[in-house]
Design goal:
The complex is a heterodimer of chains A (about 450) and B (about 260).
Chain A lengths: L1 H30 L13 E4 L4 E2 L4 H19 L4 E3 L18 H5 L7 E10 L2 E10 L7 E10 L2 H19 L10 E6 L6 E6 L6 E2 L7 E6 L5 E6 L6 E6 L4 E3 L8 E6 L5 E6 L6 E6 L6 E2 L7 E6 L6 E6 L6 E6 L6 E2 L6 E7 L5 E7 L6 E7 L4 E4 L7 E6 L5 E6 L6 E6 L6 E2 L6 E6 L2
Parallel strand pairs in A: 1-3, 1-4, 2-4
Antiparallel strand pairs in A: 4-5, 5-6, 7-8, 7-30, 8-9, 10-11, 11-12, 12-13, 14-15, 15-16, 16-17, 18-19, 19-20, 20-21, 22-23, 23-24, 24-25, 26-27, 27-28, 28-29
Helix pairs in contact in A: 2-4
Chain B lengths: L6 H4 L5 H28 L65 H4 L11 H5 L21 E6 L2 E7 L4 H4 L1 H13 L16 E8 L4 E8 L4 H13 L14 E10 L2
Antiparallel strand pairs in B: 1-2, 2-5, 3-4, 3-5
The chains are: A alpha+beta (about 450), B alpha+beta (about 260).
Chain lengths: ~450, ~260
């Protein structure tokens, strides 16, 4: 009798001990494991870009070819996904035609390239023709990836445009389908004429031209999703009002003027609504209306300033904005109808100028941490609350704006002593200064 | 004549009188009880009932008896002191009985109860012949990589790999496969998986890439058993749509892709 009881007890105890032993085994496995790998986190394709040769005797064509080569190199080098091989490592013979390509010479060290972009330029009549190819030099039996011919006018801008287009093709092909940003533009505020006016330039800082000419203060430009409209704040009639400007007709488009402060417009991702800050009710609050001014709706109800709305570009269902309801400017997120309000950054300091990344996962903002007091660009991952600092020890950095591919950020910085517009990769590397004339600030990247 | 008789044994005393008296006595007893229950209740209080008015039974407690000295309640300390000695009364340990050498061993359960013999259902003659493996059979675990050529890469989250259904696609358009793999693995977000999940079985996701690069028909063909890992893998694929358009000289309309995710961190 007693022995049988003991037997059952043992039987019951076996699974218990087995569980204990099992957990011990699992634990020891995880403890003894270590992580290794190559290319952790980032993938780059090594690409060689030898200079395109000019087959024309025209000296203008030689000049345009030089521009083309330089722009193509800069575009690929600044794409964030390509590792452009230095020209000093290239084989001696520069190919122009497919049969000229020495596959071993390009794929072996020292070049060690995987991709090769090559071609030539010529003049046909009054146009500048670029024949461009992209080869996979690791696959000699079937190397052709891209083969394009661009017909441009005999001027600098058109040659640049051809280079931007070819770089866009390469980046979209090798980057897994995200279109390149080489044809996008950046709107910004410049006081180089003596007044703060809205200006637009290419993404690499070329072709800067003035959009507005109101001898007054014009601020906070924002692109519409189809890049046909610019919305901004103008003091042209004394009172800060929202202006809409069509880049197709180069005319103003009517938008209602409300009393009090009206500023920081932002288009919804479908382009049908505008969120903006207005003090028409006495206190600066976030309002939403249709682009034609109908259907005005107030979203925030709190004492203090509520300003700088920005829509979630992926869903269009959320709006981030700045509010000082807690005593200092902080970034809050609410649904597009004003519900579900929550504070984004729980740490202190002053956080301003949110810009939502195109994939909807991140918000870039400028932040002055209480301990240091420096204004720097940060990025927060919304789901986890992880914050990454992008600029460091380089003047006052504010007003970030994402590029449509989510790989670049444009911002304003005083690191040279003046407020100028800079770009960098979205991980904070590779900063470029885009403007030098006068003071330039408040950039916004087109879509 | 000869036998002596004992009249005391022959004489049977009649029990009738005593029995009768007993019956009468019992009847009287029963009657008296009956009469008392019927009539007695009217005469006074019943058994156990209080003589005073009210329903409560009055009990005179002993403590209230005058003149009887009762001991005062002992003042006890609330915390009992642990005592080292085990107490005054202790049983002597029972000495163990000497081991009985002649005791029989208890038979094991399996020996005691024999399982019924299983019937051989299969034809034993077939079993006797040794099965020859086919000449192209691959022993278990020695097959190496599957015929579908996978292109794998290690990310911070573990391994991801892509296999293209069309056999020669991966060889001809290696750059395309690499671009797709990089895009999808960069969209695999570890923040959507709980940090306490350190590794998971492989998740296989199948999908088609259409001519314009859009992804369709994405589905999990082999689950890891952990729903959030499955969802993160499917999400990585769907977030990558549209991919780059298929290579211009590729003749097909779509490419079937098998992608696996190996979570190791």
């Amino acid at each position: 009798m007693k022995i049988r009881h003991v037997k059952y007890l043992v039987l019951l105890a076996i699974p218990f001990f087995a569980i204990l032993a099992g957990t011990r085994v699992v634990k020891s496995q995880t403890e003894g494991w270590f992580r290794t790998g190559i290319n952790l986190g980032q993938f780059t394709v090594r690409i060689a870009v030898p200079d395109f040769a000019s087959r024309s005797a025209d000296p203008r064509a030689a000049e345009l070819t030089k521009t083309f080569n330089q722009v193509l190199w800069n575009d690929l080098n600044y794409s964030g996904i390509l590792d452009v091989v230095s020209k000093s490592l290239y084989p001696v013979n520069t190919p122009q035609e497919p049969q000229d390509v020495d596959f071993n010479g390009w794929s072996n060290p020292p070049a060690s390239a995987q991709m090769l972009a090559f071609g030539y330029t010529e003049t046909r009549g009054n146009s500048f023709v670029v024949t461009a190819r992209l080869f996979d030099v690791h696959n000699p039996s079937n190397p052709s990836v891209l083969a394009k011919r661009y017909v441009a006018d005999m001027n600098d801008l058109s040659a640049r445009d051809a280079a931007h287009r070819f770089a866009n093709e390469i980046i979209q092909t090798l980057g897994g389908g995200i279109p390149g940003i080489n044809l996008t533009k950046i709107a910004f505020v410049s006081n180089r004429t003596g007044h703060a006016e809205i200006w637009v330039m290419d993404y690499d800082g070329f072709n800067q031209h003035q959009i507005t000419n109101y001898p007054s203060l014009n601020l906070t430009p924002r692109w519409s999703p189809d890049n046909s409209l610019l919305a901004f704040t103008s003091y042209a009639r004394g009172n800060p009002e929202i202006y809409l400007y069509s880049l197709i007709t180069n005319r103003r488009i009517p938008f209602p003027s409300y009393r009090g402060l009206n500023t920081t417009p932002a288009f919804s991702p479908d382009g049908k609504k505008i969120a903006f800050c207005s003090s028409m009710g006495g206190n600066p609050e976030i309002y939403v209306s249709d682009v034609n001014g109908l259907g005005l709706q107030r979203l925030t109800f709190s004492p203090g300033v509520n300003i700088s709305p920005v829509w979630n570009p992926k869903t269009g269902n959320e709006i981030a904005f700045v509010s000082d309801r807690s005593g200092s400017p902080q970034i809050y997120i609410m649904n597009a109808d004003g519900t579900n309000l929550r504070r984004l950054i729980t740490a202190g300091g002053d956080a301003e100028a949110p810009s939502w990344s195109p994939n909807g996962l991140f918000i870039a903002f400028s932040w002055s941490v209480k301990e240091t007091g420096h204004w720097d660009i940060y990025v927060i991952e919304i789901a986890t609350g992880r914050i990454v600092q992008l600029t460091y020890n380089a003047g006052r950095n504010e007003h970030p704006s994402w590029s449509p591919d989510g790989r670049h950020i444009v911002f304003e910085s005083t690191r040279t002593g003046k407020r100028e517009v800079w770009t960098m990769l979205a991980d904070g590397s590779n900063p470029h200064e885009l403007t030098t004339a006068g003071e330039n600030w408040n950039p916004n990247w087109s879509n | 004549m000869g036998a002596a008789t004992f009249p005391i044994f022959d004489h049977r005393e009649s029990l009738r009188g005593a029995l009768l008296a007993s019956i009468i006595f019992h009847c009287l007893l029963a009657l008296s009880a009956l009469v008392y229950t019927i009539w007695g209740g009217r005469m006074g209080k019943g058994w156990g009932q209080s003589l005073n008015s009210g329903s409560a039974v009055h009990v005179n407690a002993v403590a209230s008896l005058p003149g009887v000295p009762l001991p005062q309640p002992r003042i006890t300390t609330p915390n009992t002191v642990a005592v080292q000695n085990p107490g005054l009364f202790q049983k002597q340990p029972v000495p163990k009985p000497p081991p009985d050498l002649m005791a029989q061993k208890i038979p094991k359960f399996k020996e005691a109860v024999k399982a019924p013999e299983k019937k051989m259902l299969a034809n034993p003659r077939i079993q006797k012949e040794k099965i020859q493996p086919p000449p192209n059979a691959i022993p278990y675990g020695e097959g190496g990589k599957p015929t579908m050529s996978y292109s794998s890469v290690t990310t911070s989250a573990g391994d991801v790999a892509i296999g293209i259904g069309q056999q020669d696609f991966g060889e001809r358009y290696g750059w395309y496969v690499q671009a797709v793999r990089n895009r999808i693995s960069s969209n695999w977000l570890l923040s959507t998986i709980s940090p306490n999940i350190l590794n998971a079985p492989r998740v296989y996701v199948d999908f088609d890439i259409n001519r314009d690069g859009s992804i369709s028909n994405a589905r999990i063909t082999q689950s890891s058993g952990i729903p959030e890992v499955d969802r993160s893998a499917l999400r990585a694929v769907l977030a990558s749509s549209p991919l780059a358009p298929l290579p211009a000289d590729y003749s097909g309309n779509k490419v079937s892709v098998e992608f696996y995710f190996d979570l190791r961190r």
